Every structure is written in C-alpha cells, then in structure tokens.
Amino acid sequence: MSIETVRLSQQAKDQLAKLKRYTGIKNWNVLCRWAFxxxxxxxxxxxxxxxxxxxxxxxxxxxxxxKHQEIYLALLKQRCVNDGLELSPxxxxxxxxxxxxxxxxxxxxxxxxxxxxxxxxxxx
Length: 124
Known about the structure:
Layout: E1 5-8, H1 10-23, H2 28-41, E2 57-60, H3 61-65, H4 69-82, H5 89-109, H6 116-121
Antiparallel strand pairs: 1-2
Helix pairs in contact: 1-5, 2-5
C-alpha cells in the first residue's frame, strides 16, 4: 500500500461540513468516498493544481477506504492507467488528493444535494 494518510484542505473541510449538515452523514470518510466516486465518474482527468496541504481534515487510508479499501485503491489505479499516468506512490497519492478535492467541490456546489437521498439519486 502506498497511501497511508489522506489530508484535505481547509476549503474541503468547510465544504464537507456543509455536506454533513445537508445530508446528515456524520463521518468525513463516508462523504469522502462519495466525493472520490463522483470525481472518478467524471470522464476528464483531474487538473494537477496546487492544493493547500494544511491538513484541516486528516484520516488514515484504512479509515478512508474502510473494509473496501482494496476496491478504492484498484479504482484509483485503474483511473491512473486510463489517464496515462504511472502507478508510483507519489502519483497515486497526488491523484487521490486531486480526485477527492474535485469530488468534494462538485458535491458542495451541487444545489440538488440537500439530503442523503439526493446523494443516492446522483447515479440516476
């Protein structure tokens, strides 16, 4: 395993706090999994932009992935392959961070996400 810690910026923390209020989902890791999957579903690659690494939210990879951490890692690796990226630990960690931040931004900006039911409806 190459990713040990998942760190998010203050902006992502603020967006997650908003999502927690709207959806009633209490745990950061659950919302982060949703955000990760939302970003992976976007066909365009993430932009490699600088993200302030102030560690406002920090969790272990095990906490992020839970009992399905191997599936999340496989999804991340496959996305890197699809995007023509190498599977080095540095690239995987960077891509995870980029996908998390993009997905959190998408969820927070979506005015149709005001409940957990709205999250579930995103896949329709």
